[in-house]
Amino acid sequence: MEARAKRLKLAVLISGGGSNLQAMIDQAEAGRLHAQIVLVVSSNPEAYGLTRAQNHGIKTAVVDYGKYGRKNLPTITRSSLPDHFGDLVERQRIYSGLPAHRLEDRLARLVLAEQEIVGLLEPLNPDLVCLAGFMRLLSPFFIEHYCGEGTYRVMNIHPALLPAFPGSHGYEDTFSYGCRFGGITVHFVDEGEDTGPIIAQAVYPIWPEDTLDLVKKRGLELEYALYSQCIQWMAQGDLLVEKAEDGRPRVLILDPDYPRFMEQLTQQSFARNPI
Ligand code: GAR
């Protein structure tokens, strides 16, 4: 393990099975990931990831988004929203094509749930918030708490080679499009949906006889290895975000081992699936 790595305080947001969370826990316990998971928050009370965390003595919480749905909360009072809600509406980039009143309503419900999450995270002061199969959009309200000018403290794993196939069906979309290669992306989160600066990507082959299940399995193995490695790079201070000439933020990986790590990962992903 890198001597210069700081022990990162991680908050992990999940919605389901939590196999990526499990990989982080395993890597941290094995001493390969210099991080402590201080809280796991699930948007879904039934998520198996909660049990995974509890099995390892990690604190968990549930923020049930259903509570803020129209059925359980028919109207929203303005006083329950932040004072700058109007500004959040102006800035948001996650909803499009909705009439103004519907957009505001959707955003308001999201912000109510996020206020609850931020309230849980605030006293723990995490260095990084990791989304690991968190199937909810994040509004600018959440992002502004953890990201500033050139600073990104929310990371996500996405099951496709962004900018291809954003959204919630990365493997399905890759497979049904007939791609010959699939991929995964670890990126910082910004105010758009799956648009934040890319940290690292890995690819796997899709052979003619493959099924969607096989493709998912291959991709998930890459997810487990790459996500923890990206968090470890952050702990080592090896991730730098700079502005490229076109104004877009670009992530530099300073670890001299980066090419070797990627080469090994790619070789493994191809070697298991010879033609
Ligand atoms: C993973 O494949 C992850 O990349 C994906 O959900 C799965 C969660 O699995 N995330 C997204 O699609 C986010 N848009 P897990 O709960 O077993 O880690």
Helix content: 25-40%
Give the domain tally: 1
The end-to-end distance, rounded to whole angstroms, is: 36 Å
The general outline is globular
Q: So, CATH architecture?
A: 3-Layer(aba) Sandwich
Order of strands across the widest beta sheet? 3-2-1-4-5-6-7
Strand content: 15-25%
Low-confidence stretches: none
**Averaged pLDDT:** 95
Largest sheet: 7 strands, mixed
Structure class: alpha/beta
Bound molecules: glycinamide ribonucleotide
What structural keywords apply?
275 residues, alpha/beta, Rossmann fold, 7-stranded mixed sheet, two-stranded antiparallel sheet, 9 strands, binds glycinamide ribonucleotide
Write structural notes for this entry.
By secondary structure, the protein is of the alpha/beta class. The chain has a single domain, classed as Formyl transferase, N-terminal domain (Rossmann fold, 3-Layer(aba) Sandwich). It contains eight helices and nine strands. It has helices at residues 19-29, 48-55, 85-91, 100-121, 140-146, 170-176, 212-235, 258-271, and strands at 8-14, 35-42, 60-62, 128-131, 154-158, 181-188, 198-205, 239-243, 249-253. The strands form two sheets. The protein has a seven-stranded mixed beta sheet with strand order 3-2-1-4-5-6-7, sandwiched between helices. Helix 1 (19-29) packs across helix 7 (212-235).
